[in-house]
């Protein structure tokens, strides 16, 4: 496991180095820079000559200086040094003349940081370690420096050592030393760099930062509120740069992108983060196909070279088809087991509950065919399916959930349905423009956001049957996860006003800046946002999006390392004209404000 993903980490990073070769490499890399394949110089500007993980037999005889953390020590003879690039064996000198070097290397606690200088030598015959990329060589040390010692750690820095996630998050800076976290964050950085390259260098996009202090906007997710020094006035953190990117189109910046931080105050939700990152894109004079081709090219270009290449164009499916065949708007198309309508088979049935279902308006009988189900599924599996169906009775999405649950059960019994190496992309299109409001089904709300343009063939229905209007929204789905979404926007101020005021009953004053901008020659435009955290999570196969974010929040939205959010003394709240009104049952909490902190478990 370790060597497998370590070699993945090294691919694309390893470089032949050493002081002399640096010079050669300097001019070589300048030339390579002309192509897009520049090899990074991993040891420029710093005390080391090489990284721990890069040394091979080709470096034999070279004088090197390495900096790293002490991973292991064996019998005061060998020391294994680690940096982000890998491990290397260092031979501790035993002769009297090197007593001070020996003392440093033998006495420094594990995970102390040391700098060693010496010669790359080959390991004695029979002592090579084929599991270690640097296993043919070792370093004969001449000098050593203890750069910093390490106190007793809350957990060992070894990937195989089990630790709770709460502990990992509390000591995130230590968790980041693990190879897995290093791999995830470095892969993320490489993919984002390729995306920038594709968008800016190959397609002329402009990287523009938009404000994160904004105001409340209608519709969409709940926003975080930021107090201001003006009594009763608040900023909000934007749930996305949606309005700004549209305004940039009005401003003539017709190809915008941003690696944008977004904020949504949605409470505790599994595998969601209150702050997350989007690759946010907007273009003028574009249609749906244009945006889709751009994104297909972007993913193809930035896809890691050690994965199967991305095949384009991605297939597409209408929202209606997705719901009918997969019971969800984000179908996992890596396997079949589609939902089929078998109402006709039962039209004349005498079976009571089926008759009952079919007699209702739009009542149907649907089934999922599980080939070999009888062979693989046990009685207790059928029981758990029955329970899931009962728990979600009357939700339409129940069939989609059953399909996925069946797949999980079959795979738990040994059948492989979803190839772990397969990345199955899908566009879902033709969503409804509006949905009935959950709390008041007589009223409408936007299925996505209120700036989404109606489908051109349904515009005439806006005034008569708005519920029937499809939108020009598109979602990108990967292996059953929504990884992006966007739309062609409304650029006509009148239409936007009508949708906001008449159909959605929103206060248009809140959006007067946008409506005015649309009136001043707004070009037709559209865009999309890719959820970067989720995308990287799927690419790396990480169990959670928290594993691809350097400093994520816990399930309850807390930073377990710094204990944010934290309380403020009343005098610090005064300039904001804010007073905390403590709920009646929170006396204990109030008095614990100055108590030592206990992490969530
Ligand atoms: N702003 C939208 C979102 O965050 C994406 C878009 O429509 O471009 O979901």
UniProtKB/TrEMBL annotation:
Keyword Ion transport in annotation: no
CDD domains xref list: AspRS_core, EcAspRS_like_N
InterPro entries associated with the record: Aa-tRNA-synt_II, aa-tRNA-synth_II, aa-tRNA-synth_II/BPL/LPL, Asp-tRNA-ligase_1, Asp-tRNA-ligase_1_N, Asp/Asn-tRNA-synth_IIb, AspRS_core, GAD-like_sf
Coiled coil ranges: none
A GO molecular-function descriptor: ligase activity
Key words, A-Z: Aminoacyl-tRNA synthetase, ATP-binding, Ligase, Nucleotide-binding, Protein biosynthesis
A Pfam family recorded for this sequence: tRNA_anti-codon
Sequence ranges assigned to domain Aminoacyl-transfer RNA synthetases class-II family profile in this UniProt record: 185-552
Top-rank taxon, per record: Eukaryota
Xref: NCBIfam families: aspS_bact (TIGR00459)
Family indicated by similarity: Belongs to the class-II aminoacyl-tRNA synthetase family. Type 1 subfamily.
Name of the molecule in the record: Aspartate--tRNA ligase, mitochondrial isoform X3
Organism per entry: Acinonyx jubatus
